[in-house]
Amino acid sequence: MPDPTYQLPAAAPADYRAATQQRRLRWAQGVLLLFHVTGFAGLAFSKDPSFFLRFMPVTMLLTLGLLLAFQPQRTAAFWSFCVVTMLAGFFVEVVGIRTNLLFGQYAYGSALGVKWLGVPLLIGVNWLIVTYTTGILARYLPLPNFVRALVAAVLMVGLDICIEPVAIRYDFWHWQYDVIPLLNFKGWFAVSLILQVYFNRVEFSKRNPLAPFVYLVQLLFFFGLGMLL
């Protein structure tokens, strides 16, 4: 018979839960750092960078998965934001390569995996990761939402500036005459601002302890590779 004096263990104290969350965060940061450092070393110094390029889609999906794991209260509104942002980012690129009006004249290579309508499916994932992480970063600033959206859009363009030389070198995409047009950055800013305004309008928890690390490690990854080209 059960002991009538037995009591269920008390809920874990707040400091224990905080310590557990901190350990999880350190593990996630360690995994992302391992993937990015390995990829950086392979692309920068290997005689066969194509081997390491195969893991770019894996790294992107892993990054998204870890970000989602640290998003509190994954509500229907949050999932709708994710889906809409990925679809918007993907189809903006479809319009971009077909009309050359949004970003200039460019075409995608093979490094980012399977394409549909001339655009890698993972591009939508990339737009989500960058929109989400920069949106979270801007929430740290005590500013009105539209000013936060402007700041986040600038952060997105800043990351794109670092990505562009690397993208050309490793067959992510190619520009006509190998010249990155100013229109690309104007278009990126316009689309980024729209997505950031949408990010601020959707009601879900805008906190994620992993987001600043993801933005920083990606910025350093592409900036470092660009400096070595």
Describe the structure.
The chain is mainly α. It has one domain (14-228). It is 68% helix and 4% strand. It has helices at residues 14-45, 49-53, 56-69, 76-99, 122-138, 145-169, 182-201, 211-228, and strands at 106-108, 115-116, 119-120, 173-175. The strands form 2 sheets. Strands 1-4 form a two-stranded antiparallel sheet. The protein has a two-stranded antiparallel ribbon with strand order 2-3. Helix 5 packs across helix 6. The model has no long low-confidence stretch (mean pLDDT 91).
Brief write-up:
Helices cover 68% and strands 4% of the residues. By secondary structure, it is mainly alpha-helical. The strands form 2 sheets. It has a two-stranded antiparallel sheet with strand order 1-4. Strands 2-3 form a two-stranded antiparallel sheet.
Count the domains: 1
Q: How much strand?
A: under 5%
Q: What's the pLDDT, averaged over the residues?
A: 91
* N-end to C-end Cα span: 73 Å
How many strand elements?
A: 4
What is the count of helical runs?
A: 8
Q: Choose one word for the global shape.
A: globular
Catalogue the unreliable spans: none
Please tell me how large the radius of gyration is.
Answer: 20 Å
Biggest sheet, in brief?
Answer: 2 strands, antiparallel
* Spatial order of strands in the largest sheet: 1-4
Helix content: 55-70%
H and E order: HHHHEEEHHEHH
* Class from secondary-structure proportions: mainly alpha
